[in-house]
Structure formats: structure tokens, C-alpha cells
């Protein structure tokens, strides 16, 4: 006998009347649409609270990467007397902005669910909404920074070119790989509470092992080969730099491999998380 109380009835009030999703696809679409509406509202609220709701909020959006890039540019040019396109201020600023999208998401991953433990335990709030809001907010911040840096690049004589049409694929590849890292760290941190410190140290080391303030041409063998095998950003960041500053499309095959592997990894992680969902709530 079917138990009608196993799943709450879904209804949607529309201008044409009350809509009752009946089929499986209708229920999935209703759930997805409801969660997306929640995500959009939460992202807008968080942007207003942490950025546009403060006097200097929009100013700090771009000031932080500018200051960080200025420090690295001074160290490379004034102290070590290193010059070149990859060591220019605009190049460092652009790569830091790209890197921060990855770093901020991975930095925040260990406390993503733990920080919402009370809400998750006392309500039926979807974990997927928390995850999408977290990633969506950082991506919005990245887009705002990218627009500002595009104007700064134009002032420095670097203008958009046809190769920029390749940028969405590079961004998608990076975001897919970062999302895989976030899910792995978030799930692991639920059971290992002191993972936060390990992640902070690992991301810092990851930064210096990635060509953010240098190009891979400056790395000698065998270190260059090792880094290119173990660090996807040794291919992602050079692809950004080649498109923006050289107007060239590079690393296509490598990025396709990373994109495909990340998609497979996401499918596996989502399936594992679905199986251990009950244990996640218990540990929280």
C-alpha cells in the first residue's frame, strides 16, 4: 500500500490557478525552480549585506586584489629585479583575481556545512541551496572584479580580442574543478573538524606552486614537469594569460581533459554524498 505521507505534496500557485506537480519530472522541476529562487534571493541579500550595504563595500571589492598585486609587483620588480609580461602589475592583478575565485571557495569549504549545522538540524533546508549560494556569491564577486579589471586593462593598453571568446570555457573548467574541490573538502570536514587549518596551509602552498606571479617558462626542470602533472592551475592560469595578453588560444586539450575529469568526479562525489547524507546530518 502506498503511503501518501512519505513525501509532502507540492503545489504552486500561479495566475492560472493552483498547479499540482504529479509526474516525477514535474516534481523535480518544481523543486529545482524553488531552490533556484531561494539561491537568487540569498545571493542578492548577501551582496547587499557584505558589499553594497556598507559605505566602502564596493571599494573593498577591488582594493584587496590591487593591494596584493602591488605588493607582489614591488617584490618582483624592486627587490628581485624581475621584469616581463608575466611579472607586470596588470598580469599579476588579473591572475590574482582569477586565483581568488578558487581560493575563497576552498578556504570557506571546511566550515560551509558546520557553520549551518543548527539550521540543517532543526529544519529541512536543502544542502544544495547552501552550496549553490556559496558558489554563486563568490562567482558574482569574481564577475564584478573581472569587469573592473577589464577597464584597467584597457587603460593599460590591453584590449579585448577575438580570443576572449575562449574565456567562458576556461572559467567553466576552473569553476568545475573548484566545485569538485569544494565538495570533497566540505564532505571531509564534516567528519574531520580540524581540517580547516590543513586547508589554509594547503591553499597557501598551492598559490605559490601556481603561475600566479610568474609564468611556467621561469620554472626549471624537473619541477616544471612535476607541477604540470599535479597542478591543474599550471594549465588554467597560462590559458588565461595567453588569451588576455597574447590573444592566443592555448591548452585546449589539457582543459578539455580537466573539464571531463571534473565532471566525472562531481558525479561520483554527488552519488557518495547522497548515500552518506544521513550520517552527515548526524555528525553535524
Brief overview:
The chain is globular and about 55 Å long. It has helices spanning 24-52, 57-79, 89-108, 117-122, 127-155, 167-191, 195-208, 223-230, 233-246, 252-275, 277-283, and strands at residues 12-14, 17-19.
User: Which blocks of ≥5 consecutive residues have pLDDT under 50?
Assistant: 1-8
Compute the CA-based radius of gyration.
22 Å
Average pLDDT: 85
Structural class: mainly alpha
List SSEs in N-to-C order. EEHHHHHHHHHHH
What distance lies between the first and last C-alpha atoms, to the nearest angstrom?
Answer: 34 Å
Number of helices: 11
Strand order of the largest sheet: 1-2
Please state the overall shape, judged from the principal axes of the Cα atoms.
globular
Q: What proportion strand?
A: under 5%
Fraction of residues in helices? over 70%
**Biggest β-sheet, characterized?**
2 strands, antiparallel
How many structural domains can be distinguished in the coordinates? 2
Q: Tell me the number of strands.
A: 2
3D structure, described in words:
- The protein has helices spanning 24-52, 57-79, 89-108, 117-122, 127-155, 167-191, 195-208, 223-230, 233-246, 252-275, 277-283; strands spanning 12-14, 17-19.
- The protein has 284 residues and is an all-alpha fold.
- It folds into 2 domains: 1-54, no CATH class; 57-283, no CATH class.
- A two-stranded antiparallel ribbon has the order 1-2.
- α3 (89-108) runs antiparallel to α7 (195-208) and α6 runs antiparallel to α9.
Topology diagram in text:
Blueprint: E1 12-14, E2 17-19, H1 24-52, H2 57-79, H3 89-108, H4 117-122, H5 127-155, H6 167-191, H7 195-208, H8 223-230, H9 233-246, H10 252-275, H11 277-283
Helix pairs in contact: 1-5, 2-3, 3-5, 3-6, 3-7, 3-9, 6-9, 6-10
